[in-house]
Fold this protein.
Amino acid sequence: MMKANELVKGKQYRYTAGCDPVVVTYLYETFNGYMFEANGVKNPLNIMTVKLYIEEL
């Protein structure tokens, strides 16, 4: 389980909520979550999603 305070800006992580894991890059913290980018698309993720579906590469 990933702890949100362990995220490093610019580092890549594995997002496992979909059928196939996707490599995402952590960009910055938002008001109620965290902003990640995958394939040029920015996606906000809430704290619970980060804990459950973000893993180290």
User: Anything to note?
Assistant: Residues 28 and 35 are 5 Å apart (CA to CA). Helices lie at 47-53.
